[in-house]
């Protein structure tokens, strides 16, 4: 897959309810667009509040469930994503080159 895509995860409930249209769309989109496994994914999260942009520099990302009052099966979903330290360093470098203050975190996981 080549290109840049903005993909909104929508309501987390769609991961346990197959009839939700966004889920159906994303499954079909994946079949048609994702022809090979990407080497890495750059994820920009609105759930991670920091004073300055922060790059997650980890080898492995645990799943963070930062929502309340959802069915128990959602809290059981884990996405043990591998980190991409070299991509994270490149992002940090590019931000700094453009005068954007940037910090690094070595412990945070990935938001649901």
TrEMBL record:
GO MF annotations, alphabetized: ferrous iron binding; stizolobate synthase activity; zinc ion binding
EC number: 1.13.11.29
The protein's required cofactors: Zn(2+)
Enzyme class, first EC level, given as a word: oxidoreductase
CDD domains: 45_DOPA_Dioxygenase
Domain Extradiol ring-cleavage dioxygenase class III enzyme subunit B: 4-112
Family per similarity comment: Belongs to the DODA-type extradiol aromatic ring-opening dioxygenase family.
Organism name: Anulocaulis leiosolenus
SUPFAM superfamilies to which the protein is assigned, alphabetical: LigB-like
Record keyword Metal-binding present: yes
Protein name: stizolobate synthase
Pathway(s) annotated for this protein in UniProt: Pigment biosynthesis; betalain biosynthesis
InterPro entries on file: Extradiol_dOase_DODA, Xdiol_dOase_suB
Catalytic reaction list: L-dopa + O2 = 4-(L-alanin-3-yl)-2-hydroxy-cis,cis-muconate 6-semialdehyde + H(+)
Keywords, comma-separated and alphabetical: Dioxygenase, Metal-binding, Oxidoreductase, Zinc
């Amino acid at each position: 897959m080549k290109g840049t895509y903005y993909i909104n995860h929508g309501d987390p409930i769609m991961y346990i309810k197959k009839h939700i249209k966004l889920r159906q769309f994303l499954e079909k989109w994946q079949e048609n667009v994702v022809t090979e496994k990407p080497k890495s994914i750059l994820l920009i999260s609105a759930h991670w509040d920091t004073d300055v942009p922060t790059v997650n520099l980890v080898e492995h990302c645990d799943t963070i469930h930062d929502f309340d009052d959802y069915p128990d099966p959602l809290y059981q979903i884990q996405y043990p994503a591998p980190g991409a330290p070299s991509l994270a360093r490149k992002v940090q470098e590019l931000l700094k080159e453009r005068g954007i203050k940037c910090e690094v975190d070595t412990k945070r996981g990935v938001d649901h």
